[in-house]
Amino acid sequence: MTPRLLHFAHLPTPIEELPRLSDHLAGPRLLVKRDDQTGLAFGGNKTRKLEFLVAEALEQGARALISGGAIQSNHCRQTAAAAARFGLECILVLTGEMPPKPSANLLLDELFGAKIVHVPDRKDRDRILQETFDAAAAEGRKPYLVPYGGSSPTGALGYAFAMEEFMKQNVHVDWIVFGTSSGGTHAGLVLGQRVFGFQGRVLGISIDESEEWLKSHVSKLASDASERMGERIEFTPADVLANADYCKAGYGVLTDAEREAVKLFAKFEGLLLDPVYTGRAAAGMIDLIRKGFFKEDETVLFWHTGGQPALFAEKYSGGLLK
Q1: Mean pLDDT value across the chain
Q2: CA atoms of 6 and 154, how far apart (whole Å)
Q3: Contact 274/317 with Cβ under 8 angstroms?
Q4: Given 67, 73, 103, 226, the catalytic residue
């Protein structure tokens, strides 16, 4: 059973070789899956999820999308764009320090017409997000709550079917490596791996969560998402591969590891990463290559989840070239 979805992502996204970076690191063969090219508002992984989430919202008669995230949230940028495309109101509950003037993702949120509710302290975000949703509902605006990162059973379907797309591209890889945080991309890939028969391994590099949390959350989310494909499949934490060795600095904190990863991809492949998600995931992958975690005769695919607008946020742009 294929759940209802809207088709607005630019798919399939290409797979490219990274020969110069592979040579520089003297490790396994490296490839990249370009989900930074999904098309919606500079692209990114959330576009695949929104194809299912917006379809569900419209089916329920929603007139507004409400979601939350950090000030420079890639998810919120794509949610705001999707709302604009389908004539829906958008309200974003954003946490963190508000810059003196909008830039990067925040600038794009405002261009798409999203209303911004600023929450300085992250601990208050869930409460204010729910209050914002309840107020919109009471006013008759028929809101649909898009979860953080689009990571619900419905949103995770985007990456279950992304795995099907990858399999049809007929490129052999031993590992798929990507950044994982709210778990929707991770859960979808784990589900797609089982349903569509991917024989390699799927490794999420944590951006901000513990390995224990990811294994528990992703396995449950994959199980719940499977029901929307027609038959429940039970996943356990043992079915989920996650590495939380690279997120100790905290969410959105730029370290020498992220800085080096962004520079290496740019210098050797002309490919841009973002400083928060793909930069951290690539930094983890590079460190694992240097430690010999991957065999030299293996092929590793880095699944690029987008996020490049954050490069232009004042918070990060000044620190990348140190």
Answers
A1: 96
A2: 13
A3: no
A4: 73
Q: For residues 280 and 258, is the Cβ–Cβ distance under 8 A?
A: yes
pLDDT digits (tens, 9 = 90+) for 225-278: 999 999 999 999 999 999 999 999 999 899 999 999 999 999 999 999 999 999
H-assigned helices in 256-302:
256-269, 278-290
Q: Are the C-beta atoms of 311 and 72 separated by less than 8 Å?
A: no
Tokens of 63: 């007139």
The Cα 5–Cα 135 span in angstroms is: 28
Name residue 201's beta-bridge partners: 175
CA distances from 103 to 93, 98, 218, 263, 283 (A): 17, 10, 32, 22, 25
pTM for this prediction: 0.96
Which residue ranges form the domains of the chain, and what is each CATH number? 15-44+151-317 (3.40.50.1100), 47-150 (3.40.50.1100)
Alpha carbon separation from 134 to 73, 91, 95, 154, 181 (Å, rounded): 22, 12, 19, 21, 26
Measured distance CA(210)–CA(231) in Å, rounded: 29
The predicted model gives 71-98 an average pLDDT of 97
Separation CA 209–CA 167 (nearest Å): 29
Cα(223)–Cα(301) distance, integer angstroms: 25
pLDDT in tens, 14-72: 999 999 999 999 999 999 999 999 999 999 999 999 999 999 999 999 999 999 999 99
Q: Can 73 be counted among the known catalytic residues?
A: yes
Amino acid at 12: P
Q: What is the CA radius of gyration of the chain?
A: 19
Any residues with CB less than 8 A from the CB of 43 and at least 6 apart, and which? 10, 35, 36, 37, 306
- Contact residues for 13 (Cβ-Cβ < 8 A; gap 6+): 33, 34, 35, 37, 38, 165
Q: Is the CB of residue 64 less than 8 Å from the CB of residue 144?
A: yes
**Of 92, 96, 32, whose CA–CA distance to 253 is shortest?**
96
What are the residues facing 241 on neighbouring strands? 203
